[in-house]
Amino acid sequence: MPLPPPLTALDQLDAQLAGSGYAVLDAPSLARLASVQADALAAWAPLWDDLPPDGFLKDGGRYRRRRHGCFVVQPQAGHITPMPHRAHWQPVEYNALHGGIERWFEPLHPAMAEAPAWARLLCHLAAVSARLHGGDAQAPCYVEAHPFRIDTTDGIGRPTPEGAHRDGVDLVVVILVARLGIKGGETRVFDARGSQGLRFTLTEPWSALLLDDARVIHESTPIQPIDPAGAGHRDTLVLTFRRGGFQGPG
Prior knowledge:
Blueprint lengths: L12 H8 L1 E4 L1 H8 L3 H5 L21 E3 L2 E6 L4 E4 L27 H4 L2 H17 L8 E11 L19 E10 L1 E3 L2 E5 L5 E4 L7 E5 L3 E5 L2 E3 L7 E11 L7
Antiparallel strand pairs: 1-10, 2-5, 3-4, 3-5, 5-13, 6-10, 6-13, 7-12, 8-9, 8-11
């Protein structure tokens, strides 16, 4: 049986992140944090059926589909600015497999990126990031959004083919959107300074894992179909929050 996640009460979110470097919110808590109705989030789920293949997988796999979008968020003002479409870039220090190259993915679907609930979600999570690092609440926060589908086209799908890693940002938020016909996909979080860690499986749609990227590393184990003759997939929305600008080769 999958291990359940260690849920955090919403009023303890900041303390849990500051103390342990991670927190898990159930779906109702995420909706309350973002000041949105749960059905506003759930309405985006069909968009994961329209994710183009990831053409940059260096292991030759066909198991990942994704889109990408960038925003500058002013959390105190409750305002987000969509940025002109740009490449996703990470240094090799954070992604030894796919770092050091510009990866261009199709942009986010407007039904999500232009929704009022989207702006509220990003603003409230950016405020969490600012509080976590003691930053200026009025300073802009640079957000990258990645809707992923990992499927079992190749018999096995790898949510994190780069292995346990950090992302080079301030806050990482992994939101589970759906699990269908799969086993595996266990989340593992480790202290970046030692061997202490925990593992669990996100199973509730629109539950969320929040990570202090400076303090912990994370990974998700591969998925396989429950029925060897069938197919399955795991859908997530990964959001990263960073002070000072987007990562780039410059």
